[in-house]
Protein 1
Amino acid sequence: YEQLGQKIDSAVFHGSGTEVNGSGVFQNYSASVVMASSTFASVSAANLYETLGKLPGERRAGAKWYFKTANFWTDVANLTHDSVVRMYDPVSGKILGHNVREIWNGPDTGTGNVLGIFGNLRTALVGSRLMGTQLKRIENKTGTTDYVFFTRLAYANPLPGSFVGLEAA
């Protein structure tokens, strides 16, 4: 089940048009904010404010920040607004009043890559296809038993306007 969850995260966030109808949210979003350079380390507090501001007000309800764990703790978590006030509140887990979610897989720093996404995943669709989930028990000749999990899922990102990407230059 853990591997299934990681695969869903990978597809929903990074899936191409062949895996996800309309591509994953890190590839298919309506607006973007471009940082000062091609490295994620160039992210600034102003970039976070601009990202928040580019998502239309009616779509901000329930919106969250999504970052790859390593990128978040290296480049975002220590940002300050005015060299004193931290952008990220570790007690509430929020940036500018919106929850931060860390994801398993994400792009690495580099030209045009996305450091993070701000938006609402309720607009992304994940659903079962054609058959229910099955857990198969397979007896081996060696006397051991394997359990194999089968399922089919479909993904779609039908409303890219619900996401803003924070990109490296």
Note: The first strand starts at residue 31 and ends at 34.
Protein 2
Amino acid sequence: MNRSSVAIIFAVIYSAIAGVYFANTSTKLQGIIFLLPPLLATVMGLYAAGTYKLSNIHGKSMAFLAAGMAFFFIGETLFFMYQYVFHKMPFPSVADVFYLLAYPLILAGLMIEVKMHKPRLSEFNRTTTTVMGGILVALVAVVTYFGIYKAYDPDATFLANWIATSYGIADLIIIVPAMYVLKLAFDFKGGKLFNSWIMIFFAMLFMLSGDILFASYSTQYSDSIWPYTLIDLCWVASYLLFGYSFFYTASVLRELRQKLVKPKH
């Protein structure tokens, strides 16, 4: 299946999920279909890692990213089970363990690529550097306030506060490599891998957006109050962008290999 066809399928999936959320007919149905995007991201990540092979440094990077997606999928599945099977919403729970473990896995995958390419932000022109610096400062300020300061509850237990603020800390850690991912994207500008890295960059932005909104409206979201359940659409976009970027990368690699082995006439 070519890249255009898969892109259309992913766009249709997002549109269908968004339609269900905006219709607001069944929160259980929303919970079920919400599991599809992280599952797709995991499968596509494994596909990309397998295409590169684990002996390849890119394969190792993709394997870590796929593992991060898998941990998110497990966390989402456990969250769904707590909410609709066991009918309780404990916090913290085992789901939080998998959510939080996903972040260092994603960080490891990104840092492998960053370390190999050694991008330097100083190579940007002054205007671009200023814009990126402004974005970085704004993201750090927003995440620090909503993800850490606002997430702290003086009436909650130490463990609950530690888990709640850990999400904000994880987001802060992810922000820096996000800037380097943007630099990687521009390093590949004009090439096919530009699209792959720019999708990963936006996937991370959607992930941060979902986390920030959740930290701001966690009570309303946990009580499944509309329109706060629409926060899920940020994570859906993130998972699907990660998933398609993995497929896109693997597809470009397979295409390149076919050209290299194609006999010359």
Note: The CA atoms of residues 25 and 167 lie 30 Å apart.
Protein 3
Amino acid sequence: MRGVDYLRSRNNYLDHLDREGLIDYSSGDEEFDREIGRKWHGLRPDENKFSHLHSQEEINDDLKRINDIIESETYQRERDPIATKAEYALAEGFGSRGWLGDESSARITSKFDDIKAGADLLITLPDPEDPDGEDIIFVVDITTSQDYHILDKKINSEFSRLFKNNRTRLKYFRGVKEPVNRYVIGIAPAQVDELAGALLGRFASEEIEDLVRLELMEELIYQAGKQIEFILKNYDVIKEGGEKSQEEIINFFEDNRAAIQKQIPPELFESIRASYALIVNLLEQKEILLKNKKGVPRLVNHQNSFEEEPAHYLTSFRQAA
């Protein structure tokens, strides 16, 4: 009888999500969907509202393309509600809780740009070189897969775009016409659930959020540096050899900015400048976080917590690269 009640309750919950238009984005956690998921789902751009930029026929074709992907056996087989939970949890952290600084913000992308461009969130940060000017803009692709082949494929896709001088572009997003940098964030399913619980206040959350913030900053800094290094090596600005440290990359760009600008295409120089600005910004935010916490944040002791000093909360880009 208990099983029947559970199934009935579950079906009622799914019916509720369907009426609310959330069925495609359910995380399987009713409280999370109600408190966090619904808000961010409601902020997702509607492709049909871009008829001033694209013909309705083109929009319909795009929607059909992504619906065909969503309905495919491969997508349905690989689809996991935890991925939805991760996307909205990080949207909440980036967009509402200032994980990358008080002046940072985040917006969720359209379903089309999510699926076709691999861009889940668009994030803005103030430009440290021009605080009163335009913000730094970049997108992140969030994955919960622990298959490093999938992570490797996602990461390499951006290097492939940079190699072809074809950075990520969003099609259905207001105010963003130029190409942007894209970085990949991996987070394990068990960690998604813990983070979601912290955001919902199910237990003390500050230590978990601080650790996530620290790891996010480190991961974004690392990937930004690798993209700069990739472009510079691809255009023989620096020679192939050992990996460059973050400090070496920053110093090289600062000392050779004019020469670099002359040697590579304008769009790729803008990619380097954006990655450089991201690194400078996040190194400052990281320093503030560690200073306020007087060292590396530690997790509190509660059920399902990780090891006291985990090497990485998030799935490391370095393991996949």
Note: The radius of gyration is 21 Å.
Protein 4
Amino acid sequence: MSEFVTFKISKKLKEKGYPQHICDDGYITEKDDKYDIGDKEMIWIIPDYLPYIAAPTISQVLKWLRELLEIDILPNIVISYCDNLNRIRSYSCNIYSPRLNKPIETEYFESYEEATMDGIEWVLDNFDKL
């Protein structure tokens, strides 16, 4: 899985302490003549004085959350059938943690990556409770 998390998620990751130095890509945080805020650019290192935040892949974030909080975010496929027996495929995400009473299930999405990013965002929004 090599999809990058969104700019919005990258900002939340930085707030929660995601290491900025381990990514080869970054999002621009200040507009200039060449780039807009949120544009992604390949960079080799993100020093504190440059206007970038790390743009990690989904798998890098999942690994960080597993190691930091012992949280597993597991996307799954949901297949349902409509009246004419056409298959409808959607994705949801289950979030498991020893600190949760029961797994959390996200809403349904059209893609595996969207479901996974929603799970990541849920964890980041509830970071202090986990």
Note: The first helix runs from residue 7 to 15.
